[in-house]
């Protein structure tokens, strides 16, 4: 399967592979900015703001909408990077729409949320106490090395107008979804990237995900829950390698 090329916005004369980027819940698509910078001129990064789109907001429905986006915007198979909840969406997308996915980069995510210690607490707080304090707590626990003050302010400003019902529904859907039985059928080349310091998902969960996928490798990086921002060069290296693997598959 060959990843589709589209001409770069940076240099219209240079075709590039495409990386559709799916952020985590309450996570601004701008979190992929450092990764996009690391890949500039090589891979066109297309962040998808799936949480601000109309519902329903369960994982399968979101994956179907991402599939429509890929088909409409790129007309062929692309690389997909899913971070956190975005990783669950990417797995669902690869399982349900395999012809649209040339390869996967799965970042601090998993096929299920067993052992993800704080999801029920977050769901309770969304219902009882939705506000900036909760959004800031979720943001801050997502980074081992804090983002810059300007980026943190921008991330919080992006999250402020989110529909709390949408946030609740997607997290509840992810909590209740277990894609383990579908992993053997996801045969696209995959790199599982996991932050060594992730407080929500320990690295063993990333290793388990890579072991369960037929064509995956595991990379541990010196980051928290958000390597696409914290260690963009390491994730960019994974994307480059994945692009080469997808071209030869």
Question: How is this fold's topology laid out?
Answer:
Elements lengths: L4 E3 L7 E8 L10 H6 L5 E4 L11 H15 L4 E6 L1 H12 L4 E7 L11 H11 L2 H9 L8 H11 L4 H13 L13 E6 L7 H10 L3 E6 L5 H4 L1 H17 L1
Parallel strand pairs: 2-3, 2-4, 4-5, 5-6, 6-7
Antiparallel strand pairs: 1-2
Helix pairs in contact: 2-3, 4-7, 5-6
Question: What can you tell me about this protein's structure?
Answer:
There is one protein chain. The chain is globular, with a radius of gyration of 17 Å. It has ten helices and seven strands. Helix 2 packs across helix 3, helix 4 (119-129) packs antiparallel against helix 7 (164-176) and helix 5 crosses helix 6. The chain has helices spanning 33-38, 59-73, 85-96, 119-129, 132-140, 149-159, 164-176, 203-212, 227-230, 232-248, and strands at 5-7, 15-22, 44-47, 78-83, 101-107, 190-195, 216-221. A hairpin with a 7-residue loop joins strand 1 and strand 2 (15-22).
Features:
alpha/beta
Order of helices and strands: EEHEHEHEHHHHEHEHH
Largest sheet: 7 strands, mixed
Global structural class: alpha/beta
Strand proportion: 15-25%
Q: How far from one another are the termini? A: 5 Å
Specify the overall morphology. globular
Characterize the quaternary organization of these chains.
single chain
Please bin the fraction of helical residues: 40-55%
- Count helical runs: 10
């Amino acid at each position: 399967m060959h990843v589709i090329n589209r001409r770069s916005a940076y240099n219209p004369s240079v075709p590039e592979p495409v990386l559709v980027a799916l952020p985590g819940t309450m996570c601004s698509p701008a979190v992929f900015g450092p990764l996009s910078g690391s890949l500039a001129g090589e891979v066109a990064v297309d962040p998808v703001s799936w949480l601000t789109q109309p519902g329903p907001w369960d994982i399968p429905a979101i994956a179907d909408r991402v599939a429509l986006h890929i088909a409409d915007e790129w007309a062929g198979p692309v690389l997909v990077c899913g971070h956190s909840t975005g990783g669950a969406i990417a797995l669902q997308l690869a399982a349900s729409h395999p012809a649209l996915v040339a390869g996967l980069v799965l970042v601090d995510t998993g096929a299920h949320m067993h052992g993800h210690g704080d999801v029920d607490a977050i769901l309770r707080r969304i219902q009882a106490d939705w506000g900036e304090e909760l959004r800031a707590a979720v943001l801050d626990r997502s980074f081992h090395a804090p983002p810059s003050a300007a980026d943190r302010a921008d991330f919080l400003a992006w999250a402020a107008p989110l529909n709390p019902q949408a946030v609740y529904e997607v997290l509840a859907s992810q909590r209740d979804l277990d894609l383990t039985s579908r992993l053997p059928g996801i045969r696209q080349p995959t790199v599982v990237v996991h932050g060594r310091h992730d407080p929500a998902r320990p690295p063993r969960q990333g290793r388990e995900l890579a072991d369960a996928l037929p064509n995956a490798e595991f990379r541990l990086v010196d980051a928290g829950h958000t390597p696409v921002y914290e260690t963009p060069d390491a994730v960019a290296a994974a994307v480059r390698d994945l692009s080469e693997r997808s071209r030869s598959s």
